[in-house]
TrEMBL record:
Descriptive protein name: Ig domain-containing protein
SUPFAM superfamilies in UniProt: Cadherin-like
Pfam families (UniProt xref): He_PIG
Family matches, as Gene3D superfamilies: Immunoglobulins (2.60.40.10)
Region described as Disordered: 217-237
Domain of life where this protein originates: Bacteria
InterPro entries assigned: Cadherin-like_sf, Ig-like_fold
Amino acid sequence: MSARAAVAAVGRTGSDGVAIDAGYLHLNLSGTGQVTALTDRRTGENHIATGHGTAPLVSLMVGDRQVRPTKLTLGADHTLKFTGADGFEIDVAVRNKTTYSTFTVTKAVAPGDGDLRTLLWGPLPTDITKTLGEAAGIVRDSGFAVGMKPLTDRTEGGWPREEVNTSVGWQDEVQTNPSQLQVSPNGLEEWSVGARTPWGTLLRAFTFDYTKQRNRQTTVNGGPAYPIPTKPLPGSQGSVVGSSIALFGTTPDMAPTVLSAMATGQRLPYPTINRQWQKTAQATSQSFLVLSDLNTGNVKQAAAHAKAAGIKVIYSLPNAEGPWQSAGHYQFNSSFGGGDRAAAGLVSRANADGVQVGTHTLSDFIDTNDAYVTPTPSPDLAVGQRAELAQNMAAGDTTASLTSCAPLTDGVLGKRLLIGDEFLTYGSSSTVDGRCQIRGLNRGRWGSTPTAHASGTTARRLPENEYGGALGNLDIINAMATRFSTIWNTTGVRAMSFDGLESASQSGWGAYGMAGLVNGTFRRQNTKDGFISETSRMGSNIWDGLSRASWGEVGSTSMKQVFLNNAYYQDNYLPGMLGWISLNSSLQTVEDDLARGAGLNAGAGFQTSVSALNAGSKTAALLDAVKQWETARNLGAFTAEQRAQLRDQSTHWHLSAITPGRSWSLQQLDGSGNPVGPAQTVTAPTPAFTTTGLPALAAGKLYEARVATNSPGTVRYSVTSGSLPAGLTLNPDTGGITGIPKTSKNVTFTITGKGGPGVADAHATFTTGTVGVAPDSTSAVSVSRSWSRGRS
């Protein structure tokens, strides 16, 4: 970025304020550092929510007290200096990146050398309420979107649970589950930048200080908060200095382009498929064949079934865990040959038939037979509060006395203690004469040995995962990220899950722990293209590293809930997914699910087994149904009107091929399977651009526009004749054109939309100034169709 660009982005608004441009967002700060305006530069409309007080751009939690700045000055090096009494200071370097601006803390000093616990960003209160993208950190209405993006693993979305005063940041007014998600009924907002209140929306983030041992508050299933001790991070890694966010304003259609530029420009995880960014790639929503019995002996049969269904990934899910000897060290069990080399052989046999292999994992869950637990507990297991034995304890005792009952309070799963190398469970406890009396001890759990323990020995609470095992602390999380990446790098496995990902937060490290697993795995991967990851939870500092969520369990998730899930995906610029649905059902039931998937543009995990497919009398018909519906969906063959009809949950449908891979007959059915009305024709479109023109240029002013084709199979955009105006760039993944043109003269050029495998290219010649109005005028620019994955 040039110095001139920086000056254009940060400037004084008067004697007591500062203005910052971030894309089409004009951010105003008062002389005391309070956010006073969130203005759309094109319309002049201020979108800050009024009547509820203000918040500074940055502040500190010192002990249990929020300390706000009282003065803001702008340095010559484009650094915002927020100051206050007793030496309080936060310096923030601002850098303009054209479509967004970054804000990075370069100095943070608590007043009077107090205990600086947390650095807070915002919240920015907005009156934009139409759509909330909690994890993407974007709020939008029909013409404008405002976003906040964490730029480091330790910059967490949400609001710290450690803060006792919940009125700070309007936290006591935040809705815990505005998207009505079943996967997390107590909300994802604790890991999400975006939040909703009765009067507006909030964008907020924070960074926790780890320069000393700290307690982080964790909650399970909406229960009470429980403090988990965390160790200091080495050197300067634990400081809040380096905390960084991006802010931007844009049109909703252009938000993926801004997020893409942000990810590449700030070196965030950027998974691709067919070399296209996964957040905009149709292939990210591809369906999997989820098998409970995949093994070295039947992999060729599994691949044959997948090919019959037009599916490219067979996914191993035995016993809800995956093909592992144990969760923790994640060594392959006998179904995959007992080791990485044999697993690579299984993968190779599937690849020979054009099918890839995926494996399920349970994040930082640790099974009780894993080497992290037995024969000697790892010192890196996540542990809770501790107390000392108040008296000697014999190997056969079923009662114990502790100096405090604090470790036993509610807030984590299980009633388990670790004393020395012995695991124990307990029944009840009470405080008698200042000591904690524990009863109902079960000794020598998880394969440990009952042992005598002397008075003064430390007893530690051991939080359990949802399957009754242990959790890994940060060192184990990092080791697991290394192990996962080693598997993907050496065996050829090309899909996985981060199931139970919330456990990485419950280990005491919050969203930073989740980022350590997700982003840490991604960074260690040798090949970034073509690898698909799923997750049980979504958060703002892991949004970039994950491919998709696919929430929904066989037998326990209604289609109504699936629709709610897909609304969340669309709001967060994620691919549509149906979750896991059973393939061991009637043909009509499966086609009903496939029809909803076509209406939502959503893939699925089709759950079954190789043995069931081998023995099923209707297997061929079921697999062909999957192939026809998924082929038509992925080619964009259904019209908007047809997709709306398919989303009607009261309807039934049958799809049959007319010309394989090109056209189909779509017949509505009644509840008995009889035809209702005439059949409709479904035809894959010939790839062509739907954008008919581009807005005019205005020299020196931000330009944003987007070209798009009618084919979801378009994977790459490039200028193939002529050239863009100087100062503009074309995003190859999204078709977005952005920059600051150096001229107002109209320019003509040709763009090619390259098709993926089996999809033709599209070509179109564009001339700027043939549609719309110049950017920065009083009217919002709307170019091409809205970016959409789910609802039309």
